[in-house]
Amino acid sequence: MLGTIPSLDPTLCLARQDRLRAYLAANELDGAVFFDRHYIHGLTGYWHGQPLTPVALFVKGEGGSVLVTHDEAAQAPAAGEIAIYTTNDFCTLRPNLSAEVMGVLNPFLKGLSGIGTEQQVPAALIEGPLCRDISRDYQYLRRRKDADEVAALVHTIQCADKAYAEAKELLEPGIEEVEIMAVMLEAATYATGEFLSGWGQDFQAGSAGGFARPSRAVEAGELIPLDIGVGVRGYRSDLCRTFAVDGSPTEEQAAAHARVVEVMKFGESLMKPGQSCRAMFEAVKGELDGWQGYSFFHHAGHGIGLDAHEVPRINPAWDDVFEEGDVIAFEPGLYGGRLRAGIRLENNYLITADGFSQLSHFPLDLA
Asked: Burial letters for 268-296: b for 16+ Cβ neighbours within 10 Å, e otherwise?
């Protein structure tokens, strides 16, 4: 195991709550309710490790917060108040746990006019105030990662490194994709020492990506892009390494790999505050799409943190601009039949005042 999972700093959790309150005040909202356990961890330092049961947080506009959980020993250093709900009768879960949560939380909302909610909140169960979805705005609000959040993300990257090391050791023709996925999941889980909060997603050989296919063995001559997101207590890395199944890439595969590495270095030169993400995408696409007849058909990256894809997005469908404190995944690639089937490389970076800091360092080699 890697050792103790980094804890969030209660002072920084409270600062994140204050940034949210400033937003609520500017938008004439009396508070915000969250059900997403990832978001609740980021705001309070409390990690709700049981995925079968919900948890909720009410951040009061005027100050303070209420955490609703069934955990009577909850460690929530930045939660103002803890309210307990009941999940079961004689160890049988009650049929609507969200309603149980709201039965405890609704009295705290009495008399309020309007509150912000996110996409996991069952707004139909909220009694009293009008609900306004703030999911999109909240991504922009929390895009700048504090030091404790960066440390949490670095931990998830280190867990991914353990998974890649195991995959590289195991990989050879005849191994099934499901076995590769399972070994990587075991390595990442053991590295952190607890159930992962996120995992996935690409384990197909001879393909641009996809879930592991049952009873499908990898073949000599194929490439396998292993694109994984390791989630620990809500924070989630997003990395990709591509390996030659038999450890002996062809000349074409090696040349395409070298090109992707070159473009990765080129893209890094654009990582700085004020850079248009749309312009970066177009520049990267211009360096890749059509090179030697191969294609580049997906985004060039995105922010990471408490969701798999966050602000900013290196994507022509958005017009984001890099800001200091963004943590991003950058993932150039080349795809085509002669490559059997493609190469994608992905690293994670922190945008700093004068450029970037690379957070992931597992070797990019094909073999």
From this structure: eebbebebbbbebbebbbebbeebeebbb
Domain that holds residue 151: 147-358
The phi and psi torsions of 308 (rounded to 5 degrees) equal -65, -40
Would the pTM of this model clear 0.90, i.e. be above it?
yes
For the domain that residue 337 is a member of, what is the CATH number?
Answer: 3.90.230.10
Neighbours of 327 (CB within 10 A): 26
What would the pLDDT profile of 74-103 be if each residue is shown by its tens digit? 999 999 999 999 999 999 999 999 999 999
- Radius of gyration of the chain from its Cα atoms, rounded to whole angstroms: 22
Domain annotation covers residue 310: yes
CB 59 within 8 A of CB 158: no
**Which residues neighbour 242 within 8 Å (Cβ) at sequence distance 6 or greater?**
223, 224, 225, 226, 257, 342, 343, 344, 345, 366
Please check whether residue 264 is in contact with residue 241, taking contact to mean a CB–CB distance below 8 angstroms.
Answer: no
Task: Tell me the C-alpha distance between 241 and 263, whole Å.
Answer: 15
Q: What is the mean pLDDT of each run of 10 residues along the chain (367 residues)?
A: 94 98 98 98 98 97 98 96 97 97 98 96 94 97 97 98 98 98 98 97 96 98 98 98 98 98 98 98 98 97 97 97 98 95 97 98 97
Same domain, 182 and 206: yes
Q: Quick one: pLDDT at residue 1?
A: 85
Counting the structural domains of the chain, the total is 2
Report whether 243 contacts 257 (CB < 8 A).
no
Residue 172 sits in the same domain as residue 26: no
**Could you tell me if 137 and 64 lie in one domain?**
yes
Answer whether residue 365 is part of any domain.
no
Residue 366 domain-assigned? no
In-domain check, residue 4: no
60, 29 Cβ separation under 8 angstroms: no
Residue 61 per-residue DSSP state = T
CB atoms within 10 A of CB 247: 13
